[in-house]
Predict the structure.
Amino acid sequence: MNNFQRLKSGEIRMYSMDKRYIKPDGSIVWVHMIVAPLDLSNYHQYSHICLVQDITERKEFEKALNESERSKSVFLSHLPGLVYRCNYDREWTMQYVSNGCYSLTGYSPECLLYNRDLSYNDIISPEYRETLWNKWEHILAKREPFKHEYEIITATGEKKWVLELGQGVFNEKGEVEALEGIVLDISDRKAIEDALKYNNEHDRWTGLYNREYLISLLEKDVKLKKKVKKALIGINQSEVQVLTAKYGFQYTQNLIKKAAEALSRYCTENRLLFHVRENHFVFCIVDYKDKNELVEFSNVIIKTLENLFVTDRISGGIGILEIDRNQNEIGIDLLLRRLLIASERSVSLYGKDYVICFYDEELEALVNRERDIEEALNAIAVDGNTNDELFLQYQPIIDLKTNSISGFEALARLRTEKLGLVSPFEFIPITEKTKLIIPIGEKVIVKAFRFINRLKEQEYDKIGVSINISAIQLLNPDFTDRLFELMSEMQINSKNVGIEITESVFSSNLEKINNVIEKLRNAGIRIAIDDFGTGYSSLARENELNVNCLKIDKYFIDRLLDKDINKAITSDIISMAHKLGHCTIAEGVEYESQLKYLKEHGCYRIQGYLISKPLDEDDAIMFLKKYDKSICCP
Ligand code: C2E
Ligand code: CA
Ligand code: CA
């Protein structure tokens, strides 16, 4: 109203204003109004003219513009990085840089504008400069957006990870006029990513690289078809588990950590160390000269570990696998399995010392054979029918006192079309390792019982048959019950049954084993200790053993062939056994001279090639008949 009064009084000549009207339907109309005096000369009353222009649209546009300016400044001031417009040149000469530049780079925008103090290119960490240039070149040609992560060096010299998002600005001719984009600080995200990556690639306990990382490295080589000479050295420390039982988990864990520390001193760019699984380390050696270099380095490892474990007296196995350039095809899983096989072979073959074992064709053939044997045994174990592939031979044991056959030892044999005849020295350990000895052992027992019944049919009802029983069988809680069950099912008299248990069984579980033995003896079964003298039950402990007979190991029988027979302790073993109330059997007797000595020293039971090799069932019965005759009619 003020303006109108001033207009009326002639103080101002016109005025304008924006005004808002509300229409009857409630919608708003903005108008621009110009008011001026209207001078009509023959009309004395004051009048004025008012021009009203609808400006609703313009008002809305202005409002939106304000809003966008405001949000742009909010966006820019909170952006964890900078916004730029720059020339497409090697310097990335800046035409515009937002204030965020300072907190991102430590330089104010003015320093960078038109390269006043330095160029943006100077801030980019040198190793990325060429890549960035090439990438821009590439995307501009295709008019694609730019996106790249790289590191910058800030004013304080610190490195920072950034993500740049940008695009080219083109003129009508299609030439690049400028580049525009943002550079964001992603160091937080990178730090999290790095931590994640570290955890994914490292073993938490030892801080060494883990199995997954080894696999990823090997996979990468396969993908890139890298042709570098590479080998894996596996260090198998599984023996420390023995110490876990004694001193606890923490103790062995600490030992492993120490080993990790000691071994990691030998790491170089071409020699990475991994803790691939509990108690197993792997060195991955790249670009080595020859086998000798691997052996030499393995010897260094051995020295280190021997020194470290000298008080704990544990050893381990070293397996070496050379990754042949063409071997990439066989798969990483198989490679690692082969390495494990080599290191395990080294542990099992050499026990107390660290020995190096290469994975080569010989070992491969051995492993394949073991697998074939295991397969064959598996098939036999699940086969309900009696299978001829597993059969028994019987080796006579004679009694020199009565000059008669006192019994047979049942010895298991395996013969398949593929494998031929397999020695029990080879397949029994496999059955033990795989626990197949339980079903296979039962089949052996059944076969031996059938033989006893066959002998009975032929009126040889006093002949005993002794069966070899492994520790695993003996410690199986069902063993005695199952044995007694079979005996009653097959109507076997316990006086015909003998059991041979190797001496090494007594090294542990003495009490448990003695309980089982007592049960068996109470049932009337004879028990013999096999391989006596070689193992753990020293003669002193032997009186704790509740057994009938000691089978003196072939080693002591062989000693009787030595030049100075008087030095043989075989006679001492015999007399000691007798004093403790056990009978003795000599095994592996091959020569008359041995037989003579044994007889002279009171060992009357003899088994060995001198009497007979192990015989098939029919031959064993023939032998019995012949032997009987030879006694009757000398
Ligand atoms: P062992 O119980 O000590 O059996 C004696 C081994 O010496 C047998 O070997 C036998 O053939 C061999 N032998 C007998 N007399 C002589 C001789 O005068 N000279 C020589 N050089 N050797 C002789 P075999 O049959 O190869 O058995 C090897 C081992 O396999 C056995 O040693 C036994 O520990 C194990 N074994 C055999 N059958 C079974 C079985 O059914 N169950 C279990 N758990 N182990 C078995
Ligand atoms: Ca035996
Ligand atoms: Ca033996």
